[in-house]
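Suppose you are handed a protein chain with no further information: no name, no annotation, nothing but its sequence. What can you learn? This example shows the usual starting point.
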Amino acid sequence: MKPRAVVLLSGGLDSTTVLALAREAGFDSHCLSFRYGQRHAHELDCAARVAQALGATRHVVADIDLRVFGGSALTSDIEVPKGRDPDDHSGGIPITYVPARNTVFLSYALAWAEVLDSSDVFIGVNALDYSGYPDCRPAFIAAFETMANLATRAGVEGRRLRIHTPLIELSKAQIIAEGRRLGVDYAMTTSCYDPAPDGRACGACDACQLRARGFAALGLEDPALAGR
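A reasonable first move is to predict its three-dimensional structure. Written in C-alpha cells, the prediction is:
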C-alpha cells in the first residue's frame, strides 16, 4: 500500500510540479486547494484538471474567505502590480502577499493529514527566484514542521509529520525542467495573478513574468502566453 500524502495544489506551475514529484516518489496523493476569495479563482479549474491528469486519489477544495481581512492585491481591490522588472521583484514584501496564507493552508493540510493517517505534506514554496514572501522561506517551513509535531496526536504518539518542499532551492527554469522530465503539460496550469474573465494570463504581473522567464531560459515559450 502506498503511503498517503497531502499535496497543496493551486493549479499553478510550482504546485503541479510538486504533485508530479510526489507521484514519482510513490505517494498516494490527496490534493488540497482553496477558494479563499482570490481574484484569480480560475486557478481552481486548472487545479481540478491537474489533479485528474496526474492521478490524484482525491481533490478537495476548501472554502475560506480571506477577503474579510483584505490586505493583499489578491483578496481586495488593490491593483496588481504589472510591468515590473523581474530582477526587482525581491525588493521587499510585495502587495500580492496574502497575510498568513501559507500558515493557514498548511494548517488545513495538517488537519487532513491527521485524518488520513498521513505523515507527509507537500507544498510548492520556492525561495530562490522570488524571496519576497516570508512564508516561503526554509526557516518558516522548519518552524511549522516543529509546531505540527508538537500540536498533533500523531506527533505526540511518535509519528512525525514531514513537510516536503522539493522546489525550495530551485530556479523557475529548473522547476520547469523537472516537470518536463516527468511529462507535465504546463498548458493546463495558470500562474497569473490578474487573469481575464476567460482565464487568459495577463502576461504582465510578477507571476506571469517570472514564469515566462523560466521558460525562456530553457528556450521555450510559456504555453499560457502562446500566441500573444
